[in-house]
Amino acid sequence: MKFWKMNGAGNDFVVINNIVEQRPEEEYFEIAKILCERHMSIGADGFMVVTKPTGRFPEADYRMLFINADGSLGEMCGNGARCICRYGYENGLAGETQHVETTAGLVIGQRITERQYKVRLNDPSGIYLDYPVEIDGEKIECSYIELGDPYLPHAVVPIKDLANYDHNKLFELGRKLRYAKEFPKGANVNFYEIIGPNHVLEKTWERGVEDFTYACGTGTGSMGLTLALKGLADPQNIRVDMRGGTLIIDVDIEDGKVVNLYKTGPTNIVCKGEVTDEDLKL
After folding, report:
1. pLDDT digits over 120-129, tens only?
2. What DSSP line would sit under 59-113, residue for residue?
3. Residue 41 C-alpha from the chain's centroid
4. pLDDT for 31-66, tens place per residue?
């Protein structure tokens, strides 16, 4: 089974083209758990499968199925979408403009340079700017954003002095927020601090990985959207720094409504090869 290992701002993925490989879809989830296990296999935050579109979106060039490292189905992944757009372009599946079917809806990607891609994220299906969450008897300031249909859930939480915040305390808060009763599907938890004009620092605790990741594309988009709607940032060219690099968020707002949510950032092809993992029955 041929694979590519890619990352987008440090969010890393194993990618296969199942139009070629033709593995049964029911196998994807076990394959994801094995291949994404660091130290034991290739290691990744998620497993992405390129398949033929289902017909749900007539304009779709191909379908991206995203599976978390724990084997659970993910509705979409923003950094993964940038990588899959580069994969699709370099494998001749689409041109410089990509139309990608995802579980959460249609995603449109644009090749900017060889490594930079801009993606229009799924439309928000739920925006709750004032959504406090109770953790251990304390009210935590929070916004809650749902992207796509079915939606990806995101908690957006301000943290003072985020760069120096105790890692273990932040990890525990992220874990508790991820499973908070206020979030029916759980949530990706996006901690942020505004550190300059249209300049934000972010750390994300991701469901499915169950840990901090180097970046979260949909979470960063949700955070940028939140700041724009709250008037805390200009909607255009919001720079977001995270451990894996920098993403740029642009929000188009008309009559108080979000009409476009874009994310621009890097892609990296780490390696290409053949899966020979002996724990898989290939």
Report:
1. 999 999 999 9
2. T-SEEEEEEETTSPEES--HHHHHHHHHHHHHTTSS-SEEEEEETTEEEEEEE-S
3. 22
4. 999 999 999 999 999 999 999 999 999 999 999 999
Whether the per-residue pLDDT at 282 is higher than 70: the answer is no
Is there a catalytic annotation at residue 216?
yes
The contacts found for 251-254 with CB under 8 angstroms, 24 or more apart, are 251/224, 251/225, 253/228, 253/229
Candidates 36, 83, 85, 216; catalytic one: 216
Q: Of these residues, 77, 83, 85, 142, which one is catalytic?
A: 77
Beta bridge partners of 57: none
Distance CA 61, CA 92 (A): 10
Model pTM score: 0.95
Q: How far apart are CA 173 and CA 64, in angstroms?
A: 32
Task: Based on the residue annotation, tell me whether 85 is a catalytic residue of this protein.
Answer: no
Q: Cβ-count burial of 276 within 10 angstroms (0-12 exposed, 13-18 middle, 19+ buried)?
A: exposed
| Cα–Cα distance, 46 to 253 (Å, whole number) | 31
* Mean pLDDT, residues 86-107 taken together: 98
